[in-house]
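Quick one, probably user error.
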């Protein structure tokens, strides 16, 4: 699973830019940006440089990988899985502990090798065998007994039934097993996939270039000849580029610039609700925030709704729980209204009472945040409100690598709060198990939270059930405790947004950030139109 807002290897710090003034957009000539007949796409952050899906853990590498590789199944624009390398729906056996998948005929890798069951087996088991950061996503797989039935059929065995398996794990990107196993390090930056584009070149923190594979086995065929990915971490820089016509499309339209770009001749803006979950996490391992009354006091000290409205507007939705609305809408029908009523709302008097009664003497909490304008602003909002209540809070903006090394210590001298985000996909398990279960404490973004006697058992019971009604009831109990005990404050779900020159045709943002830009799909295929 790819996580769009955090990676343990990010090394760059945000460069703050000045506000962008209106600029004249260059003429609408497709590809008039140094890329010839190709698309220049400006990401928010440079990829980590992991172009092997077995190890890739950031959305920005995944955005390239999802064009270079095909998945066994792939998400459509409704977050429903559709067969790609698979010939059809999986066949379930042994009460959800075995799945049989047949592959399509004729699928090939870029080097001409056929896509086989052995490649699928390796793609599913390597994250566990190699203990990559993606291991929690696949660790329910029975590595020893997952095997090819024949060249075109794979048998996937699980250690236990897993209710989210068909929605999450079967979306695996399939690697070329023989090439990868020959030299895993080389494969990471010189990948061989079966997708519509081939990997051409990459310069760390500068660009990634991919080209159309003219012998692509699948349908539809790509229309773009090439794509060049560059990054501008500064929001103002990306907006300046699209206004000046120096790029064809930019990811993540800053909320304050939405109206300007939407009203600009020659530019189109797009938005899609996403399964993203931004949160304020408390240090439940050490320090003042181990006391739930301190956590409740902090939650009562500021208005999350006001923050989202003022800083994100229509670019995000405030959350009541760790489960994004788009996931709930896939048939779960959780009691979100009840959670909203139970969640600590803005009440400065109650915040003062709780903190004065529970916070340690001389309590001066540290809030660590990534180099992101909105999350820096959220940290500063919390700190400002705590300062008004008599507590001197400090906000530290850390690059992603340092932040990752810091919050996993669980040491109150390092932090008492941190702000991060997670995109898990269309099932509650990947938010609750990966972030809250004790197996994942200190791994990836797993929180330190002891919970009640049943808390971790309930997460595991829901994970191992294939009965959605049973899972729903367990998840309600789990989220009830999270809302009441406040190990985290669920903050907001940020929509995926793109701005593009109007000669970019067929562009539609995908709910999953790792699929953007979705350039080749059954729903739409992107092309450039001469202006």
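Nope, works fine. Designed sequence:
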């Amino acid at each position: 699973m790819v996580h769009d807002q955090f990676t343990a290897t990010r090394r760059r710090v945000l460069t703050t830019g000045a506000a962008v003034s209106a600029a004249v957009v260059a003429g609408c000539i497709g590809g008039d940006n140094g890329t010839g007949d190709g698309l220049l796409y400006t990401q928010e952050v440079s990829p980590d440089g992991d172009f092997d899906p077995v190890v890739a853990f950031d959305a920005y590498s995944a955005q390239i990988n999802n064009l270079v590789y095909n998945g066994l199944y792939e998400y459509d624009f409704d977050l429903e899985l559709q067969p790609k390398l698979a010939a059809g729906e999986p066949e379930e056996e042994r009460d959800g502990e075995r799945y049989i998948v047949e592959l399509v005929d004729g699928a090939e890798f870029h080097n001409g090798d056929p896509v086989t069951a052995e490649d699928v087996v390796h793609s599913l088991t390597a994250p566990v065998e190699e203990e990559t950061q993606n291991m929690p996503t696949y660790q329910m797989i029975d590595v020893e007994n997952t095997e090819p039935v024949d060249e075109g059929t794979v048998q996937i065995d699980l250690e236990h039934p897993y209710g989210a398996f068909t929605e999450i794990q079967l979306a695996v990107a399939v690697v070329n097993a023989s090439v990868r196993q020959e030299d895993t390090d080389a494969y990471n930056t010189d990948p061989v996939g079966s997708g519509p584009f081939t990997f051409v070149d990459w310069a760390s923190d500068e660009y990634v270039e991919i080209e159309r594979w003219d012998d692509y086995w699948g349908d539809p065929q790509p229309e773009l000849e090439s794509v060049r990915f560059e990054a501008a971490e500064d929001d103002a820089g990306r907006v300046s580029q699209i206004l000046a016509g120096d790029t064809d499309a930019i990811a993540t339209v800053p909320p304050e610039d939405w109206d300007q770009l939407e009203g600009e001749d020659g530019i189109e803006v797009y938005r899609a609700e996403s399964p993203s979950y931004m949160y304020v996490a408390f240090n439940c391992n050490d320090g003042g925030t181990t006391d739930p009354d301190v956590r409740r006091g902090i939650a009562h000290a500021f208005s999350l709704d006001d923050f989202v409205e003022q800083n994100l507007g229509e670019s995000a939705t405030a959350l009541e729980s760790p489960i994004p609305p788009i996931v709930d809408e896939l048939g779960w029908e959780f009691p979100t209204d009840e959670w909203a009523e139970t969640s600590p709302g803005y009440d400065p008097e109650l915040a003062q009472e709780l903190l004065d009664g529970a916070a340690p003497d001389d309590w001066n909490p540290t809030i660590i945040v990534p180099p992101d304008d909105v999350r820096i602003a959220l940290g500063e909002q919390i700190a400002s409100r705590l300062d008004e209540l008599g507590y001197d809070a400090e906000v530290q903006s850390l690059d992603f690598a340092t932040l990752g090394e810091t919050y996993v210590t669980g040491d109150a001298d390092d932090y008492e709060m941190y702000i991060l985000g997670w995109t898990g996909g269309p099932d509650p398990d990947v938010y609750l198990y990966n972030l809250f279960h004790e197996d994942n404490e200190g791994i990836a973004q797993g929180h330190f939270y002891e919970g009640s006697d049943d808390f971790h058992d309930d997460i595991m019971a829901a994970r191992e059930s294939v009965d959605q009604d049973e899972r729903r009831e367990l998840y309600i109990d789990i989220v009830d405790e999270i809302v009441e005990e406040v190990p985290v404050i669920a903050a907001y779900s940020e929509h995926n947004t793109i701005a593009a020159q109007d000669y970019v045709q067929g562009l539609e943002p995908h709910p999953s950030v790792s699929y953007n830009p979705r350039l080749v799909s059954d729903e739409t295929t992107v092309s450039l139109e001469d202006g």
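The longest helix spans residues 468-485.
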